[in-house]
Amino acid sequence: MKKAMAVLCAMLMLLVCFGCAGGPSAPSQGGEQTQYQLRVDSAKREYKLGEAFSDQIMVSLLGLEDGTVVSQRILSADEYEIDSSAFDSSMEGDYTIRVTQKGTQVFTTFTVSVRAVAVERLELQGQQLRFALGEAFTTGALTVTVHFEDGTSLVLGQEDYTVDSSAYNAQTAGAYEIAVTPENYAVTQRYTVYVREDDMPDYGTQISILAIGNSFSQDAMRYLYQIYQGYGYTEIELANLMMSGCSLAQHCDNLKNNTAAYEFEHNSNGTWQTDAERRSMAYGIDYREWDIIVIQQVSGYAGDAASYGEDFQTLLRYVSDRVADKGTRIYWHMTWAYQADSTHGDFAKYDNDQMTMYNAITDTVRSVVLPESDIDGVIPSATAVQNMRTGSLGDTLTRDGFHMNLVYGRYLVGLTWACALTGEDPAQAVAAGGVTPEQLAEIKESVRYAIADPYRVTSIA
Predict the structure, then answer these.
(1) Chain CA centroid to CA 271, Å
(2) Quick one: fold of 206-452?
(3) What is the 3-state secondary structure (H, E, C) of 140-167?
């Protein structure tokens, strides 16, 4: 009996020792007991103010005997739990995170830090910019990205920023400023939305478009017929009153004198044809009842606000009055900046700098063109081109430093026209003109971002 009691006591002692050291242990062949520890790898240790805690970690269970690791196993996510209750991303400081193996007392801790980093800029993408009269304000597909001076960035959740739309008035047509402010950063980004008295019409499967332009509208319209065919349009009529290098001032001289100065290029069957004789602006406008008429400034002066003046007003009033009873919508073509190595003589107006030219163009459109009530919309070709330049093709979108590449450059601008003029979805576009699948994918992204954010460059890289 005494011997049996002694054996029982020995067994109880072993059971007690198995639970020692805060976790499971077991006797080794040499009589040593295995102690268990957790090790955390791949944990994010540095956070910026406002950044959410990341539970993407790797947890290993280590078996040790006499301080030496004798076994190791990576735990699955359902075998451990993370206690991050002490973490507060709204305040700078160091915070302790605890990781425990479920069903045991084995745990470990690690420290993370929340630090303030200077904000370089706030980037807004995808916001809705155009509203019909009476339409309630919405941010649309807005994404807010904070870019920091250390080169990193952070996409904010909707709960991490506020939108001040108090200036918005759905009952009155006009331009309204919207302010976006992150919760944890002393920076505000503003953008402008526009309330129009009517929304974009539904053209069904029929569309007619006239451009009063030059070689830049010629580039833009080259594949427009095929692009619309790809969207299911069955009756398409396109025309371009083309005068090479024609500026607003020259257009005004032509219309005042009723000069037959234009090559009248038209396309109603998929093939562009040019009349044998030159035509006047009145001829082109009266050729038929157009759904849309597009006007533009010559490329070299597109970013020169002073060059618009009375010429812009005169041309716009003339076109508007001539189609007043026809339901025609008038759009502005925002042409693109030159290639960085362009030798075009007007590039010097912008210090031969592409981004200087791009910013001048977008600033001019916003300050001079958009306030005009007769302008129904802007085709953001400049931004689509600039977006595309951030992709794999780089700054190779022109054939001579300013005119579009004959294939992917022209298709890019054509798709921008289709999406801006009739609301087509760039994701559904069908290739034309020899555009490759790889090029088409980048073109779709470039156009999508340009339509969503017409006056800011978005990288597609």
Answers:
(1) 34
(2) Rossmann fold (3.40.50)
(3) EEEEEEEEECCCCEEEECHHHEEEECCC
Q: Where are the domains of the chain?
A: 35-64+75-116, 119-196, 206-452
Q: What's the fold here for domain 35-64+75-116?
A: Immunoglobulin-like (2.60.40)
Question: Selecting from 1.10.260.40, 3.30.565.10, 2.60.40.3630, 3.30.1360.40, what CATH number does the domain 119-196 have?
Answer: 2.60.40.3630
Residue-wise pLDDT for 260-300, tens only, equals: 999 999 999 999 999 999 999 999 999 999 999 999 999 99
Nearest to 302 by CA among 255, 349, 243: 349
pLDDT per position as a tens digit, 139-165: 988 999 989 888 888 898 888 899 999
Assessment of whether the complete model's pTM goes beyond 0.85: no
H or E element in which residue 254 lies? helix 248-256
Q: How far apart are CA 231 and CA 421, in angstroms?
A: 13
Token couple for 96: 């302790």
Under the banding of pLDDT at 50, 70 and 90, the label for residue 452 is confident
- The pair of structure tokens assigned to 270 is 């998929």
Which distant-in-sequence residues (6+ apart) come within 8 Å of 193 by Cβ? 127, 128, 129, 130, 131, 137, 168, 175, 176, 178
